[in-house]
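Teaching assistant's notes for section 4

Start the section by putting this record on the projector. Ask students to predict, before seeing the second block, whether Helix-turn-helix domain-containing protein will look compact or extended. Collect guesses on the board.
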Amino acid sequence: MESLGPRIKQLRLQAQLNKAALARLVGVSDVTISYWESGAIKQIGHERLVALAEALGCPLSHLLDDGAGGGQQPLRLSHHLPLPWQGQGAPTLMLEGQKAPAYLVTPASDESFEALPPGALAAIQPLSRYLGPGDYLVEKQGQLDVRRLEGESPGLELHGKLVTRWARLDD
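Reveal the predicted structure now:
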């Protein structure tokens, strides 16, 4: 699986930007761009990822997609089962610092989640057990929701944990 660093470099070259120009657009130093591209800095903050995608003129999903899924769009998350990745052979992505793959999701049209507004992207790592405080994809009485959990919650079936989220800047 191709890592994020080489993808940043490839997209920068396609956009015909040098490191200094990209750094100015993103609001970082050109040394930081070098570190991102080489993989010396393995974690990039959410705001910087959004700014990076804008500067490179590509959707955030394209920046995060390693091409293994054929450039598929984010999976559409609905309040109704089945889970968007079930039975589809959906592509996964590996985020820096994460030990397990995740799915890139966005709310389906006409769907609203308190913790995931329309147009937002999230990486959800499938799981069925509580792993500490955070936002989880849960099922209660056959309905899916994204909820903040501070402790184990009886009556909720866990389907995944949001490991990262990106909101649109114009919202």
